[in-house]
Each structure stands twice: as C-alpha cells, then as structure tokens.
Here is the input.
Amino acid sequence: MFLGFTPKEFNWDNYLKMSKAEAAPEHLFTWESRPANPHFRRGMKLEAVDKKNSSLVCVATITDVMDNRFLIHFDGWEDVYDYWADASSPHLHPVGWCTENNQVLTPPKDTKENATFNWNKYIADTRSTPVPARAFKPCSPNEFEVGMKLEAVDRRNPGLIRVATIAEKTDHSLLIHFDGWSSVYDYWVDDNNPDIHPINWCAKTGHPLELP
Here is the structure.
C-alpha cells in the first residue's frame, strides 16, 4: 500500500489519529542515555551470540569502542559477522558463561578439530584480558508494544529515516515495518539500537523524514 503523503500534509499527531495507533514512548529509546562503560576496552575477551545464527555462542573480542557502544568480533572469523552492542545487550556474556550454563561455546575458527578449548590458556596465549563479569548489565524485557509508531533507519539505504511501525516483538528485539511499504523491507533490530528513534526525532534534529 502506498499512502503518498507530502511534507505539507504529514503531521505525526494527525497520522496517529488516522491510523488509530500510538507513538512509542520516548523513554523507551535508551541507547543515547546510557553512559560509557569503562570496563569494556579494545582487545578484551567475552562470549557473544552470533546474531546471524542465534544458536551459537562464540569466543569474541572487543575491537572498537565508541561512547557507550563497542564492536564485537568473533575470533578467527571474517568481520562481516561483527556487530555493535552495549553492556545491556542480552547477546553478550562474560568468559565462562557457557560452562556455567551448560551451553556449547564455539571456539575460534582456527581451533584444531577435536581440540579442547580452554579459556585460561587462550587468554594467556593471546595476552588478553576478559571483560569483568560485573561489567555486564543485562536489561529487562522491553516495554514496546506491537503497533506503536516510530522513526527508523532504512537498512537498505541508511541515509534515509522512515515512518515505521513495530510489527512484532520479542523480549529484546523489534520487527520494524515501514508504513506504506511491502513487508519484504521489514527487519529485526535490538530494542536499544541507535537506528530507531521516537516520533518527531527527525523534526528535532533537522534530518528529512521519508513519509508513507
């Protein structure tokens, strides 16, 4: 469905009434308000979920830090699997988490077949340091609701921010749907991802908003 609003015609208040929807409350967008966490530093080791295959928890390294977010890299793998996260991410765990929770830890890609992975030896061999367990601050399940409206980055064209709706949700993830567009453009995103914004964010920042 193509709605075809023009900038002069579009107004968030009227659009919410027309679509019989509510805006996602501004306080749920928390990524900007979280302070930098000094415990996460470049080169530190941890265990992290592979977002492209969520059944895998892998040996990982922090390769970059920017404010309150850091870049997760899976040891021995290409950087196409890297992703940004913060201390509240449910996808991150301290060294030893898999052992404590009877989960299988996927070792670095270059680990010899049938070799037993040992964190203590690996940390010594790589001259690295684990992220301290106290640094992880897992958040509670999000309070977003299906049907709420927001503004979201178009992953296929990241320079664009569009009017969007939450189509589905899990405890920590949201399925973003662009109003007026096919569901083939929908995508899942963590609830604290900086690609999602409350309504009127574009108006406040001067960024153009792509209309339905």
